[in-house]
Prior knowledge:
Elements: H1 21-31, H2 37-47, H3 56-65, H4 76-83, H5 94-106
Helix pairs in contact: 1-2, 1-3
Amino acid sequence: MTNKPNLVLITTTPITQVPRESFDEFKHWVLVDGLKPSAALRKFMDKYQCPKPDSSIPIELIKYTYPDFDISSKSFTFKIHDSGYPYILTDFNDNDFDQLIQEILLSGW
Length: 109
């Protein structure tokens, strides 16, 4: 008997496959329309048909929306990459995402 790992390939949408103007839309949804970042991300995923976005997409969307946002604060990037957010919601979900962004924003970045 061998101890082979049970690996599954997950095909994600790379950031290069979403149009740059989609970043402006996301920013508008959050800052003008008042959507929570997770709701704007879900809307983004639906509109641009990327149900499994690469973890760099939510990070880059937040960086674009809040240019001075410290993405290294409170392990933001680590939590996104490590959890598989936004298409795996077991360890880190939409509420966690919104709460973490809010905490970083309130801390003065």
